């Protein structure tokens, strides 16, 4: 029996100006190209820029090796605002990747609810817990599958 959890990663900023949205879908609109504009420094390995999720390169490699279902990776552009640059002038951010979630919650290792909550299997959560997820809220999902 697999247990599922809703995880809510920390939010370091918002969609950047170079983000391209497909407005032919219902909200949240499909993101075609992703730019994340950071306002604050969160050093977690998974972050949320609604409606998207990004992961560090080291977490991406672990998730690719895990070969879970319901997600794949793509490129993301990371930018920072002026205040971020003032506070952290010499900081080099890690390489991030867009974790595109396409799975069904409660079936795949990663999926999205209609409210756009990220649902992960206990197997995937075990991987995430090996990394820095200190800003993530983790809630047990009220359903199980066999």
UniProtKB/TrEMBL annotation:
It comes from the Bacteria. This is Uncharacterized protein.
């Amino acid at each position: 029996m697999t247990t599922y959890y809703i995880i809510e990663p920390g939010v370091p900023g918002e969609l950047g100006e170079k983000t391209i949205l497909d407005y032919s879908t219902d909200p949240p609109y499909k993101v075609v190209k992703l730019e994340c504009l950071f306002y604050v420094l969160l050093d977690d390995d998974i972050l949320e820029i609604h409606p998207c999720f990004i992961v560090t390169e080291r977490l991406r490699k672990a998730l690719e090796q895990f070969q879970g279902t319901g997600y794949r990776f793509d490129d993301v552009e990371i930018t920072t605002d002026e205040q971020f640059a003032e506070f952290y002038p010499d900081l080099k951010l890690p390489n991030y990747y867009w974790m595109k979630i396409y799975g069904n919650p409660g079936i795949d290792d990663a999926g999205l609810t209609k409210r756009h909550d990220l649902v992960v299997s206990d197997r995937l959560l075990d991987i995430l817990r090996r990394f820095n997820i200190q800003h993530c809220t983790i809630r047990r999902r009220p359903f199980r599958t066999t």
